Amino acid sequence: MHIGCCKEMKHVHWYKAILAILSNLLHLTYGDFEYVVSKPESLVLSAGYETSLSCEMNIPPDRFQWKFYPLDNPYDSQALINLSSDNFKIIPQDRYRVNKKKSELQIELRDTEGTGDYQCLAYYGASVVASVPWRITLERMEKSPPQENTSASVHVGNTVSWKCEAPKSNPEAYIDYKYGNKYITSPYKNLAVKSMILTNVTVYNSGTYSCLANNGFALKELNPVLRLEVVRNGPPRAPTFIIEPKKEYTVTKGSSVFLDCSAVGQPVPKVSWSKKQSVLPSNRSEENGGLIIRNITSRDDGVYVCTHTNAYGTLTHEITVKYNEEPTIDCSMNMTDVNQGENMDIECIVKGTPEPQVSWFLNGFSVLKDAAVEAIGNRIYFRPVEKRHAGNLQIFARNVVKTVYKSIIVRVIPLSSSIDDIPAPVYTHPKHHHRKPPNTRKPHKMTPPSRPIITRLDDETVMVRWSVPNNNGLAIQFFKVQYKEIGPANHKDTYNTKGSVWNTANTDVRPNIKSFDIRGLKPDYIYKFRVAAVYSNDDSKMSPTSKKFHLRRLDFDEKNPLPVCPITYVQTLNHTAVKIYWECPKYNVSIDGFYISYLTATQAGDDYMKSTVEGESTRSYIINYLQPETSYDIKLQSFNSKLASEFSPLMKGKTGASPITAPTTVQITPNHTKKSATEHSSVDNQLYIVIVGVVIVCAIIITAIVLLFVCRKWKRKKLTDTRDKPSSDHHIQSDVDAKTISRSNGCVLPGNKITITSNPLADAENKKFLARIFSRIRT
């Protein structure tokens, strides 16, 4: 009995150990996503009122920061502020307190300058999480709109509806109705009924009725009054409205609404409801004075018609119901890995009514100023991905109902170190005696560069241009340009190119650049060129070889026919891009495009980077991937298939300041260092290594213990069988004499004399070993 209990306890400990390991793995894998715990809301305050906004994260960040978007109308709580706008301010650090996972911003609303949206930023190394904004506006109630007094005489049994027009107010004012000094309660208490409804009136309901507006901050008595007379015997009368009912209602998903439509007459009219081009919703109920629709969905919007009828006439009224729904975002991912230099497209499904306004944030700030990123509605395009794009990518969607967001963790895998030689595929002959099963995995697609086009730059330099058509396969890390010297152009013999050697340029050409100049060539020689693309799997693909190109020597007195087009203006776009404009004089030759050469102004030499602009009529171009706050020397050449023009005069341009560091006024304490995107990626890689290591160790431990149990069971069975047999000597005699016993590395070789001795302590040792393993797993 005790032995069985021990075995059950051991199994329980095993299950606990395995569950603990799995729990830790899940925590390491999914537990590090940061998000905002607080629920931002819209607040309406009086001038001079103080409040605090609390931003709490699920994980303590390195530091907090607050942004403020001012509001044009300080009394409009429904106004939409474009979060992608540059019209924001960084709030000084002395205005908010930080306590581990929480930051509290103190706000004293002295005047209209403090109204607007407040957004919290939480920094986790290079990754930043931005919250949904809080909205703060000022309270105000304007003058009531002009409305005349109403007098009505109705027959007993009618339903009376009377409505006062509410003044414009922030927050929205509700109307209280009074009969003398007594407040009138609505028969539909759980609904926001804006009219006074008196059902089945009697003579006791006769009198004067008034109304008041209340927005929670102020109470204002309104001018109009209703003088009601209820009679028992009145003349016949067709249906009529005491005051025309409301024509339009705006509702939100899941709410309920009361559509007011009451008419009086003699005899009391009967009411019927219908819906244009549809049927009435099933979640409706027809009540005295109107129609109630509960738990509203998108199917409930439309035009409703109420019809009042008696023997003396018919009266109809149309009511439009507009449906609103808060935004929803579905990105089908919450994390993605991408190689540096790859193109990345992300599309999220954004729904909401009215159509939400979409903004994309990368690490707490809008992507609009990033020249490598284009955000169009619910789509975002990276051309290409750089290291600085690592971190937290957020998509915000907001309409009059609500603002929501989704986060996508972007991890950028840096390019591997450059190589001087083009890796060539290794071909091996298959061995028939080791036949492997066919590989059913689809090979990675590697799109090769196009056949290069060559243009003469000067007597010793050519420009090599290429493209990569429809690259939907592996990302390209860099290009390598190779060239082969065929021989002198005036050589009359047939060239033998088999012995020629391909020369490789030392420079790795970035994947976003599709041109490269080869220098130091011999004039009046013939060359061939080709381009190799090195992909993210470190494999390569070679372009077709170019046609033979004759590098002609231009005579000293021969004028270059291509026009020199001077750069007229350099416009700073952002911290990584400038736009250049140029003009060309009149010319009589064909032009294929322009070469733009640029170099940092502080760098000596002629190691210019080059961009190719296709098109004869092009007169402007954006140069991307520049360094922030850096001056550049820029010059330009026109070219065609034969040669390029002389360089234009140098023009200087400068990139702008970084959009993140420029507006920041918060001082960072020394112990809160900011990690780079590369460090962040390295930490994630180490995390995966730890996870894999834990899994492997667990598998080894489990396998070892299973083998020990099997071995132990086998030994027990063997020991039992041995005890049941008659006692015999435990010696196995070999055919070889004991003197001829040989050893190898201390082990007795097969066929020699072996002595088997049972070990009575073996079972105890096994128990101790297993006990040690279980104790370690429990801890």
In short:
12% of the residues lie in helices and 38% in strands.
Description:
Keywords: Cell membrane, Disulfide bond, Glycoprotein, Heparin-binding, Immunoglobulin domain, Membrane, Proteoglycan, Repeat, Signal, Transmembrane, Transmembrane helix. Residues 34-137, 146-223, 239-322, 327-364 form the Ig-like domain. It is found in: Cell membrane; Membrane. There is one protein chain. This protein is mostly beta strands and 779 residues long. It is 12% helix and 38% strand. The strands form 16 sheets. Strands 1, 3, 4, 7, 8 and 9 form a six-stranded mixed sheet that branches. Strands 11, 14, 15, 17, 18 and 19 form a six-stranded mixed sheet that branches. Strands 21, 24, 27, 28 and 31 form a five-stranded mixed sheet that branches. Strand 17 (207-214) and strand 18 (219-221) form a beta hairpin.
Q: What's the overall average pLDDT, rounded?
A: 80
Task: Give the end-to-end Cα distance, rounded to a whole number of Å.
Answer: 27 Å
What's the level 1 CATH class of the largest domain? Mainly Beta
Count of beta strands:
56
> How many discrete structural domains?
6
* SS class: mainly beta
Shape: elongated
Helix fraction? Answer: 10-25%
Q: Can you tell me the residue ranges where pLDDT is under 50 for at least 5 consecutive residues? A: 1-16, 19-32, 417-440, 661-683, 722-765
Rounded to the nearest angstrom, the radius of gyration is 41 Å
> How many alpha or pi helices?
3
Organism: Sitophilus oryzae
GO biological process, one term: cell-cell adhesion
Subunit structure: Homodimer. Heterotetramer; 2 iHog chains bind 2 hh chains when facilitated by heparin, heparin is required to promote high-affinity interactions between hh and iHog.
Region (Disordered): 427-451
